[in-house]
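Morning run. Coffee first, then this:
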Amino acid sequence: MTAARLKKGAIGPIGLAALAIGILSPALGLYALWPPIQAQTGPIAPLVYLCAMLVALPTAISYAVLNAEAPSAGAGSTWLWRALSPSAGYLLGLTMTTYLVMGAIAQPLLFGLFAQDLMTFVGWPVGGRTVMIASIIVATAPVVLITRRGADTSVRTAVVLMLIESAIVVALSITILYVKGSQPGGVQFEPFNPMQATGGAVGFWGALVIGVLGFAGFDVVSTAAEEADAPRRQIPVATLLTVLGVGVFWILNSWVYTLAVSPAVVQEYTTQGMTAVTPMARLYWGPGNLLIILTAFTGVTAIYISSVIAASRLIFALARHGLLPPPLATLHPVHRVPSRAMRWVFGIVVAASAVTVGVLGNGVAGFLWWSNAMVFFLTLTFAGVNLANILYFARVARRRFRWSVNFVLPVVGLLVNAGLLYEAFFKTLWVADLSSGRSVIIFCVALLGFWVLCVAAVGRLLPQRLAGEPPMEAEDTTI
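And here it is:
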């Protein structure tokens, strides 16, 4: 029997770029990250974004060279399966799926936070928990309708949302430059001067961790390999252009935002647990700052769409190979999308979001809890891909091994991800309280342990499932 396959050619080069850019979200990468970056290290946010982009590049290059050699919807799972062992590849597939599902869980919670801002804007006082619960449904419903109609519809929507949010960000920057340009010394390049840092080395490294995490998710473009026109050529280009393009976008706009308000103002809002972007926009646009809130909604939706697309494709591919329950490999008869896998993802997202709000009591705590959990599985996934780069070209594609991109850069990527795992996860969270810190570590380590047991059980009880070629490949003969 022929294995069920996704719709070939459903995603072109623009769609691939939109899928990757959508999950990074040019707007939310500024709204959510610029204030804490500046609060930690002072008015050098664009310099931090620049360093974060340079830190993310080694892993992005590992993805690019491996996709050029062997494009696969399973990405690191497939490459590690062939280069190290099927068990290692299977475990990395579960790890990657986990971080993408966690990324999806965080989106309704983030949607709820901006919904609360909207309620405040219109003067309609509603209980925070009520807004959060309602937002879970409001944020999820349109994503369900969009993603079930196929990858082509999903990426078209992501393109539109990306253009809207990017246009608003740029419009605000142009307004700020126009106003500051009429003031003596209003436009200057001190934010790129490391001597302007006020947080010292500790503040800089803490801000850099935040900046690097902003690039989390660029790898989702790899999961579209089976639906891409020419994945061997298009996915590497989309991967590198996403990291470089979004990085430059953040560098330039964070420079303007840093000119707009004093570091003390940003610090004050950040300390209060509020974003400094909305009040900053009010200074320059007045009531037009409503556009910032609305843009945040489009950014959340784009990330939600990209996360569901990526997670469901991985679940589908693993199930198709018998490594997850076989019913999850069911495709929609018309749109050729993994409909049952998507329903499971949405079910997990809604349930986890609702439980989080009920247990932790507010959206901020819930969003941070799942974001921190995602850090653990994200860094493990990226470390696995860098390891796969080294082993794949050393053992499978020896003739094309190059020391620079198949050893030096992935080693740098491994070291960077190990540092992030230690600094941003274990070191930071273990000293926090149980509900927001140590509980995340305990949950993530326990879940990883469960996945290890699952892999071991399959290897012992169903060894044939770990035999042969990996479950996630892309048919592409394009050179």
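Confidence is low (pLDDT under 50) at residues 474-479. Good start to the day.
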